[in-house]
Amino acid sequence: MAILPDVIRLGPVVLPNAWIAWLISFLFVSVLLKRSLQRLGFDGDKQTGWLLEAVLFGYVLYRLVTIGADGAGAWTSFRTLLLSVGPGYALVLGTLGGIVYLIGRAGRDGVVTWRWLEAWVLPVTLTAVLHALLVAEIGRATNMPWGVSFDGASYHPVHLYRAVAWAFAAWWLYRLRTSPRQRVAAAVTLWAGAQLIASWFLVQQDLWFGIAPSQWLALIAISAGGYAWTVDEHTTPVEKM
C-alpha cells in the first residue's frame, strides 16, 4: 500500500506520483549506466537507448494484458488466464518481456557478455535504492517502534526495508572482487533476496499456489543466478540460452 499522494500537482499539470518516481529512476539509471558502459569500453549512448526500448516494450506488453486486445483466440485466452490468476502477474509478464527484449536487442549486436552484464550491476542496484525511497510503501500492521503511523494504525515501512536491503547489496557488490560472471550471479541473487525480504512484510494479493507475483519473480531470478554460477566463464550468456 502506497502512502504518498496518488498525484503530484505542478501548477496546471497533474501527474501520477508513480510516474514521477519511475521517471526520476529512469533518468538516474540512464546516467549511471552510460558511464558504467563507457568505463568498460562499450557504446554507452547507443546501449542506454536500448533500455528505453525495453521499458517501452515491457510496458506495452503489460498494458495489452491489463487493458485487453481485440479479437479472439490464443492471446485472448492467455490474457483471461493471467487476469483470472491476478493482475500482478501481468506486471511480471511485462518485466520479463522487457528483459528478454533487452537481451535479444543486445544479442543481435553481439555484445551480450558477462562483462557487458556486469556494467548493469551497480547502476540497477543504486537505482533500486532511490526508487524505494521515492515511493513510500507500508505493509502489515506492527507494534515495532519504527512503524509508520497511517490512518490511526502503525505499519511496517516496507520502502525503508527495501532501501536498506538494496543499499547493502550495492555496498557488497561494490566491494566484491571476482569474475564478471560471478558478480552478475551474485547481483541477481541479492536482488531477489531483497525482494523476498520486502515481500515478507507485505499484505500479499493475487496468490498463485500461495505465492505472490513479486515472489515468483524473485524465485525466477534466484534460478537465473544459480544458472549463472554453473556456466563456463568464457561462454557468453546467450550461447547457453
Topology:
Layout: E1 7-10, E2 13-16, H1 17-39, H2 44-67, H3 74-85, H4 88-108, H5 114-134, E3 138-141, E4 148-150, E5 153-157, H6 158-175, H7 180-200, H8 213-230
Antiparallel strand pairs: 1-2, 3-5, 4-5
Helix pairs in contact: 1-2, 1-5, 2-4, 4-8, 5-6, 5-7, 6-7, 7-8
Describe the protein in words:
This is Prolipoprotein diacylglyceryl transferase. It comes from Tumebacillus lacus. Keywords: Membrane, Transmembrane, Transmembrane helix. The structure is a single chain. The protein is mainly alpha-helical. The chain has one domain. It is 66% helix and 8% strand. It has a three-stranded antiparallel β-sheet with strand order 3-5-4. A two-stranded antiparallel ribbon has the order 1-2. Strand 4 (148-150) and strand 5 (153-157) form a beta hairpin. Helix 5 runs parallel beside helix 7 and helix 6 (158-175) packs antiparallel against helix 7. It is globular and about 55 Å long. The protein starts with 6 loop residues before the first strand and ends in an 11-residue tail after the last helix. The model is unreliable at 1-5, 69-75 and 81-86 (pLDDT under 50).
Summarize the model shown:
The chain crosses the membrane at residues 19-37, 49-69, 81-104, 116-138, 158-174, 186-203, 209-231. This protein is mainly alpha-helical.
